[in-house]
Amino acid sequence: MELHEKLAILADAAKYDASCASSGADRRDSHDGKGVGSAGGSGICHSYAPDGRCISLLKILLTNRCLYDCHYCINRRSSNVRRASFTAGEAVKLTLDFYKRNYIEGLFLSSGIIRSADYTMEQVVGVARTLREEHDFRGYIHLKTIPEASAELIEQAARYADRISINLELPVQTSLDRLAPEKNLARTKQAMGRIRVKLDDAAEQRRTGDRKLRHATGQSTQVIVGADASTDADFLVRSDELYRSYRLKRVYYSAFSPIPEPSSLLPAVAPPLLREHRLYQADWLMRHYGFSTSEILPAEFPNLDLTMDPKLAWALRNRQDFPFDLQKASRGTMLRVPGLGVKNVDRLIVIRRHKQLRLEDLARLRVSLDKVRPFVITADHHPARYLLDSDRLLARFAPRPQQLELFGHAQG
Question: Helix-strand-coil percent breakdown of the chain, rounded to 5?
Fold first, then answer.
């Protein structure tokens, strides 16, 4: 099989993995005349996947052959897809050629499981080792690791990569037992724990003076939304655990996409993409706004409201706490106001040291006054109590009704 044919198959097979962002990587470059590549800078040509994600990495599988039979995966053992494999040398050549043509800023490399987890991990690590040691490649490398592989091989992967990741796939073991019987949640978390220890050790070595230490700066994971009956609360509780206990950089939420010749255990239709978006918003609230999972999703509401963002939904459930006086409120309190983001809160804190805050100050910061007005007090504004205490507030933010088309296409 020609190399371009393999690339077409194995790049397409990798498109379902969303956890390939390069944020947090050290910005190395070869401006000193040594080495090849850069992990940042201008001149990178970006391409876009069919779902709109921006890709500036060569994103491939080493092979789409796999011993596992995960029902939601197009590359599962029982899937009737065309198979291909790169040699380590071919993967290295493609990475260097694509970089020198200014198509990419690095490599995202994953693989199906061939022969065994350790054998597969050796092949993946071999590509990164060759790029780093033989070609002095300084671009970004993200390696997808396998929890069943030995701790030594995963540690080697961390030495050559900027980011490593292990896909959790589903948030609860019962779902894995049903849809991915070869995978084990406890084993995956154990591998994440070992990675965290190594990452902490590397960070400490850098702090104590070993600036040239090459080691991954973080780990991430991906979960599939809508392939099973897991609620949004299941996903957020698991993500919160991963952030707190394993210090993951990111949890990526990927809406389940129906695949050719699907298993009978999978849903017939994809979940609304808006659900994925709401999960990202809720994840952001946990990581940057100080919200707990129980605040975002109380026990009686295990799924996010698709009609409004999670912060607004929380505010409407807690109207008795509002309005907040922006002149006196703490930073943490201001972050809970719908329509106020981290940057604007920090700007308002600076402004209020010098003057009384007014609505015009919010307008200058391009804050949505319609969203903010019911929840804040400023020098020239105090929301009417009757509005906060009534269902009028809910109606204010409800989506507008849409006129149905008389001759619209039937939904089948």
Answer: 40, 10, 50
Distance between CA atoms of residues 243 and 284, nearest Å: 12
Q: Residue 163, SS3?
A: strand
* Local structure of 58: helix, strand or coil: strand
How far apart, in whole angstroms, are the C-alpha atoms of residue 180 and residue 172? Answer: 11
Cis peptide, bond prior to residue 323, ω within 30 of zero: yes
Q: Give the tens place of pLDDT for each residue, 102-127.
A: 888 889 999 999 999 999 999 999 99
Q: What is the mean pLDDT of each run of 10 residues along the chain (412 residues)?
A: 87 73 48 52 38 68 93 88 93 92 86 93 96 91 92 92 91 95 93 91 82 80 94 97 93 87 85 94 96 95 94 92 95 96 96 96 94 94 77 73 59 44
Say if strands 47-48 and 54-55 run parallel, antiparallel, or are unpaired: antiparallel
- The neighbouring-strand residues paired with 250 are 220
Backbone angles phi, psi at 106, to 5 degrees: 170, -165
| Distance from C-alpha of 97 to C-alpha of 4, rounded to nearest angstrom | 13
Per-residue pLDDT tens over the stretch 183-192:
999 999 999 9
* Closest-CA residue to 236 (of 246, 245, 227, 223): 223
Q: What pLDDT does 30 receive?
A: 53
Q: What are phi and psi of 193, to 5 degrees?
A: -65, -40
d(CA 109, CA 36): 18
